[in-house]
Design a protein that fits this description.
InterPro entries: 7TM_GPCR_serpentine_rcpt_Srz (IPR018817). This is Serpentine receptor class gamma. Keywords: Membrane, Transmembrane, Transmembrane helix. It comes from Caenorhabditis remanei (Caenorhabditis vulgaris). With 140 residues, this protein is mainly α. It has one domain. Helices cover 71% and strands 0% of the residues. The protein contains eight helices and no strands. The longest helix is centred in the middle third of the chain and has 25 residues, at 70-94. 1% of the residues are buried.
Amino acid sequence: VTWTFYNALLFLSAFLYIPIIISIRKFSHLPVAKQNKPERYILIQMVATLLFKSTCIPIVLAWSEWDIDITTMKFTFYIIDILVIPVIIQLSYLFCNKRNVTTLLSSFDIIQFLKVILNLRVEVPVQPMSFTQSSVQYVV
């Protein structure tokens, strides 16, 4: 019951973005709103929340056919929540405004991303710094 209540509350909060979008559209005539398009970022937050939290719906439908134990189903939903809620929070933060999106996309490098994901980084050996007598300055 608690899990169902929390998920219903999360879906309700996602749908509460709709009045926010309507309220923001009232100010769409302002130059800042035309430039930044804040309703787009709120819409991305709403879609991300609904998309990631709706991953449980196919599981419920499939398991209702297979007669799976309710304890196993609850455990699976808890694991999904543990994995999905941080992703929702991060996506909501990263896509909350134009500056964040611009920074994210400008610093994103697909080659570097794949190297990190696939653990293909080339290791550079760490060597101690060597000092010569001429490079050391004495402080008097």
